[in-house]
Amino acid sequence: MQNASSSSAAPLHDMSSSYPSRVPSIAQLIQEYISTLTPFEQQGLAIAKDHLGPSFDMKRSSGFVRWKDARDAKQPGTSGK
Prior knowledge:
Shape: globular
Radius of gyration: 20 Å
Helix content: 40-55%
Order of helices and strands: HHHH
Number of helices: 4
Distance between the termini: 48 Å
Strand content: under 5%
């Protein structure tokens, strides 16, 4: 009977750490999106955040969703939705 700890093969979850992630985090995407906005649009974003308070969710905002869909469609190897 062979003990699992004596095996020379590394568990799958350990192997994935050696490969860098190419998928940007949601925070990185939000920063990228905001950098594309005009000063007028950034002012509108600030007003929306102020008026909606904690119910505002950038990930669900129509502008961000449209921008992300268009960005994903332009990049090879990603699905549109």
